[in-house]
Amino acid sequence: MSAQLRRRRKVEIYFVLYLAALVLLMPDSREAILGAGSGADDMRLDLQPERLRLVCRFAKDTSGAVGISSMDTVNVIRYFGTTADVDVEAVVEDVETGYRIPLAEGESTGLFSLSTDPSRSAIRFVWRPMTLEPVGRTFRVTIAATAQASNGNANGLARLSASTQFVLSTVVDDRPADRTLIRIESVVDTVYVQQQSGSAPSDRLPDEFWVEPAQVRIIQLAGTRWSNRLVVSGADLRRDLVALPVARSSDARTANTITVVPGPQDRQATVEGIMPQSGTAAVEVSIKRRDGQERTVRFSLESRQLAPLKVPSVLYPEIAYEIESRLPELSGQTVSIAMADGDRWRVPPTTDSVLRFTPQWSDTGRSYVVKRFVDGSQVSTDAVRVRSFDAPEIVEVSRLADGDARRIVVRFHGRKENRPTLEVLEGNAAVRKRYGDLRAANRAERPTISWIEVFDVEAADRSKPFTFRLQAVDRRGARSRVVTQRD
Asked: Is the bond preceding 134 in cis, omega lying within 30 degrees of 0?
């Protein structure tokens, strides 16, 4: 073999060894992103709350005072994973109203606070229910965290995220909020590895899939439109469903009025329909995910009839009236009552169960309208009129047993202060009021506007004939008919 050929083969061998060395030194593409020695199983961020429900219990004592008998105020959420630079935020949602309170790490609202303890790999959530009114309420708390994988490279390409939920509730005399149902089926969180390069996470659907209604019991007036908000976990309603949610009702007459409308957020929907004309109906809504999993949520509709308003058609000045609204308690709706004078309010709308109105003398001769509202929509009207009191009436003239003396009974109207006098227009007569005989003319009348006053009349001069012409006069100057001794 020639010397030139041997030199060529040596060069080729060295070149192959050189290429092999370069290949061995090249980093794996996976390691370039995640860091040498790391695997997919190491790239996790798990959140695990110590408690799924924190409860504050209110109780009434024998005097009727309400106090707190027990309360859970702190929940610790542990985070696990090879992580660093953990950022945390929370959202507290009132389940009934949907009102949401965002909460940043280190922030305190007075009612809620959120903080972290990196030395313990813990998130600390605190609430102070002693500042709440003693009514049944439910809050859903969502804790979301993001973190840097501690074995990621200097460019920070690997970012982890996770979330979990738990519930806060207040209970009064062991009765929770009757319109809410919260179900937390799992504490296993869905974890995504987010790449700055823009690559999408896996298309695999999360395992935790549940649906909750904001209200499990809806009470409204018969024939009115109802709505209920659904919150979905584990599915995007615009992307992850086989078909639109299916709603069914046990009331065949209103079943075709029910619709399901996706909400402004991808994991919310609104169910709407018309209340039954009477009784109770059950509603079911089924949601089927594209992987075949299906969830069904149920709630009830309870119709209430609008009771007629009990209001006198005629009102009188200076009499305090209390008009009961007779509106039932309705789910999540505001009921009110008011008195209108044309396009102005004589008594502005009030959410109290009673409308209080004392007409003035300047109201005499005017007509008003009592209106009832549900969530600002008018549901009834009743006309009333204010007029002056009737004049006093002499309703009875009787002879006393001991001679010619007479007992005269007068009915007058208005307040007690409008008590009449008995004037002697002419004749031989002396009048004496019987104190202690003042009484209501009708004990069932509410408010009392008619009263009875009693007088005794006898001869002023017994040597002269007993004759008289008498007339009752109230404080306003109104006069009754005239009576004589022949009556």
From this structure: no
